[in-house]
Amino acid sequence: MSLGEHLTELRNRLMICAIAVVLLAVVGWFAFDWVFAALQRPFRLAAAQGLKADLNFQGVGTGLNVKLQMSAYVGLLLSSPVIMLQTWLFVMPGLHRNERKYAIGFFGTAIPLFFLGCAAGYWAVNQLVPVLLSFTPQQDQVEQLIKYDDYLSLLVKTMLAFGIAFVIPVVMVLLNFMGLVRGRTMLKGWRWIIFISFVFTAVMVPTPEPITLIVMASAIAGLFFGAIAIAMIHDRRKGTAEDEELDDDQASSIDGPSRLDDADEDRR
Asked: What GO terms fall under cellular component here (predicted)?
């Protein structure tokens, strides 16, 4: 394909993604009441703990702006499988057969893990909001009004952060299968993996009890160590296959006598 044909193909893929986002954003528009009620759950949990806080819509057009933003976020979230599929269809013709196999496994695993990470991010916000509100003085003359735009931005960023965190191990496996990094190299940074997992969880889910921190950080670290285990198994199988393909000239002395030794025996 020429450069112009590649650009035309890219334009068509982007158009399909845009149409999917718009159509599913319409679904988000009609599901606004249900989504809005779900997003208010952290504040209901805070109210049950005696914490006073109210969401505030500042400005006449803020309600419409929030509804449009939420519809767009819902459309992007629901259309993420379509976007990933179009990305795969665009890059697939340039891949070798084994690379296509790896890419199919990548997309098939990354999509459910991304949604699982987004769900974990929503759960984290439910834990985060009451903790943050607890720092506000709970007195009769103090009333905390929270801009809904700011809260929605916090929610989306947290869900996106967890979604990406859950997908990174799949990227590590893909890089290993493509021969760019070995499993032993990944394993050398196991201390940093544990440290970053706990720091990330402590920042995103600042709950007072240690059980939640340990469980959540262990789950994130477990994904990384699972990716490392898969990479090391793949490296071992790849090394075994390469050893089996060696011919006699490439075999080591451990594998048997060399041709030079055979020639010496003949001269004797």
From this structure: TAT protein transport complex
